[in-house]
Specification:
The chain is mostly beta strands. It has 2 domains: 84 residues, Chitinase A, domain 3; 48 residues, Thrombin, subunit H, CATH 2.40.10. It contains 2 helices and 9 strands, in the order E-E-E-H-E-E-E-E-E-E-H. The two termini are 29 Å apart.
Length: 159
C-alpha cells in the first residue's frame, strides 16, 4: 500500500542539524495519520506521498517548514518569586503567548540574582534541519482515526 491521504504511516527517523550532528532519532517506530491532519511536518508529508514500505526519504526542513523562526519576544526575564521554590534550568511552565491568548510552554534557561529567564521558543526554532526516515508500515486509517484526526494504537485509547 502506498502512502496517501487517510493512511497511517509508521516510520523510523533521524533528525540532523546542518552540521551533520544527530539531534534526535527514534528507537521505536512512530505512527502518524497522513493527509494534512497536522501530525507531521507538511514538507515531510509531501515527500512521503506515494512511497511504500521499505522506502527512505530525506527532507531539508527550513525554519518555515519545521519549528519556526526564533522569536526574541518569547524570551522573558521574571522575578524568581513568581516561580515555585527550587526553580531550576530545564523546568517548563505553561503561560500566555502573544495577544492571541495561545498557550506557550516556557523553558527555564537561566536562574541568577533573583531572576529567572524563560524561553517560549521550541529548542529547534530558527534551525534548518535534515529529516531522514525509513517507512516501516502503511495501512488504511480507520473511520474513527480519521474523524479524530490522529492514530489510535493497537489497544485504542480514551479521550
Amino acid at each position: 500500500m502506498q502512502i496517501a491521504k487517510d493512511t497511517v504511516v509508521t516510520l523510523k527517523y533521524q533528525l540532523f542539524g546542518t552540521d551533520g550532528d544527530l539531534i534526535e532519532e527514534t528507537e521505536e517506530p512512530v505512527e502518524y495519520l497522513h493527509g494534512g491532519y497536522g501530525n507531521m511536518f507538511p514538507a515531510v508529508e509531501k515527500a512521503l506521498e506515494g512511497k511504500d514500505v521499505g522506502e527512505t526519504c530525506s527532507v531539508k526542513l527550513t525554519p518555515d517548514d519545521g519549528f519556526g523562526d526564533y522569536d526574541a519576544d518569547l524570551v522573558h526575564v521574571e522575578p524568581q518569586d513568581k516561580f515555585p521554590g527550587g526553580v531550576k534550568v530545564g523546568m517548563q511552565f505553561e503561560g500566555e503567548g502573544d495577544e492571541s491568548g495561545d498557550k506557550v510552554v516556557y523553558t527555564v534557561t537561566d536562574v541568577a540574582d533573583g531572576k529567572v529567564v524563560v524561553d517560549g521558543n521550541h529548542p529547534l526554532a530558527g534551525q534548518t534541519l535534515n529529516f531522514e526516515c525509513t517507512i516501516t508500515g502503511v495501512r488504511a486509517a480507520s473511520d474513527e482515526e480519521m474523524s479524530h484526526g490522529h492514530v489510535h494504537g493497537e489497544h485504542d485509547h480514551h479521550h
